[in-house]
Amino acid sequence: MAPPPSALYTTTFFLAFLLTLFVAASLRLLAILPHGPFRPTPIRRRPIATRVLIVLGSGGHTHEMFYLLRDLDTRKYTHRTYVVSSGDAFSASRAVEFEGVLEARAREAEREKEERDLASTNPTIKTRRQRDNADDTITARPFCVGPDHYTITTLPRARAIHQSLLTTPFTCLLTLLSAFGPLLSSPSELSSPNHNQNPSTPAPSASPDPYDISTRTPPSLLLTNGPATSVILILASLILKFFDIRGCASQGLCKTIYVESFARVRKLSLSGRILVWCVDRFLVQWEELEGLGPGGRSEFWGVLV
């Protein structure tokens, strides 16, 4: 006996609906995923405050990451969020130690600046220096260091050592759900790091503080060098871009940079083979790895660590 026409119409409508969803999702993925090798975009005005999320592994990954960050300018990257896996006390302690180095470096730079200002007693030299540095907004910005300008977030491990493959999907799902926390939640609310401002002095204007705004939005940049947690975090960032949550896609937030480990000489790591398809920039440290990935996306920049 043939099925009634209403059942056929329902089945056809359901299949058409699924096909429409599939096509729409595919087009959306094509819109948010990078295509081919990196092409520099026109230089735009740099924001006053920028939040960067740094994924730390354990052991070698952490050591390489902090070597990559050795020249980090805290006037540009005003808030750092370090993501570590549960049980990785080593990476968390290294993050605190690294922030201490940044703070000491900032104090030394401020001291040298004060000495230069005191040495320039000649009004002609001072006027010329002010004119030459009139457009140098970066050097005029304060250093953003100290406990108020970094946070350390712990995520559950996606897969523990010797964990059964049967339970791995459940722990990966838990890690994915936890990954939205550091991407969306606000770190400590920051105020403009003007150390000489009198707290009793009212603000000169009612405009929002850019340093505070930067902590309320998703990070502008995600930086990783291959730990397994980074795959889950970048997947979470793609979900945010897919649905344009908090302007991740429309405002160009959650840009991702992947730096392949120095130990990878002839072939990419498992994390690299997965993420080469979806990160904004994929950097390698050996010439043999240049041009790998879809459209030759991997970029050779020499030894970075």
TrEMBL record:
GO terms for biological process: dolichol-linked oligosaccharide biosynthetic process. It is found in: Endoplasmic reticulum membrane; Nucleus membrane. It comes from the Eukaryota. It comes from Lophiostoma macrostomum CBS 122681. Keywords: Endoplasmic reticulum, Membrane, Transferase, Transmembrane, Transmembrane helix. One of its GO terms (molecular function) is N-acetylglucosaminyldiphosphodolichol N-acetylglucosaminyltransferase activity. Residues 109-133, 188-211 are annotated as: Disordered. Belongs to the ALG14 family. Residues 188-200 have a biased composition (Low complexity). The keyword Magnesium does not apply. Its main location: endoplasmic reticulum. This is UDP-N-acetylglucosamine transferase subunit ALG14. Pfam families: Alg14. It is a single-pass membrane protein. GO terms for cellular component: nuclear membrane; UDP-N-acetylglucosamine transferase complex. Heterodimer with ALG13 to form a functional enzyme. InterPro entries: Oligosacch_biosynth_Alg14. PANTHER family: GLYCOSYL TRANSFERASE-RELATED (PTHR12154), UDP-N-ACETYLGLUCOSAMINE TRANSFERASE SUBUNIT ALG14 HOMOLOG (PTHR12154:SF4). Residues 109-118 have a biased composition (Basic and acidic residues). The chain crosses the membrane at residues 6-30, 165-184, 221-243.
